[in-house]
Prior knowledge:
There is one protein chain. The chain contains 2 helices and 3 strands; from the N terminus they run H-E-E-E-H. 21% of the residues lie in helices and 8% in strands. A 3-stranded mixed beta sheet has the order 1-2-3. The chain has 98 residues and is an alpha+beta fold.
Amino acid sequence: MEKSGPPPTITTDGGFLDLARSAGLRVADGVVVDQFLETAIPGIYAAGDIAAFPDPITSEPIRIEHWAVAQRQGEVAAANMLSHSQPSPVRTKCELSA
Length: 98
């Protein structure tokens, strides 16, 4: 019996927005995700610099290019891949300067 490996994982945004778009993901300023960092394709997640998540005030997709956001969103995306339903912790850009 042939084993199939896991699907490919995109881990950086360096030139991958075109690839994400061609794969059918919604792309704005980044890969558009919901509050759980899941794309419009169930089971596909994006986190960090590439993820455009809903602004809690405007609901418009925003990206925050900051190492702390990328680190925390990576943790949240991993938890959600394991079905923990944990929302993204970043609520506003102001939280980074607090």
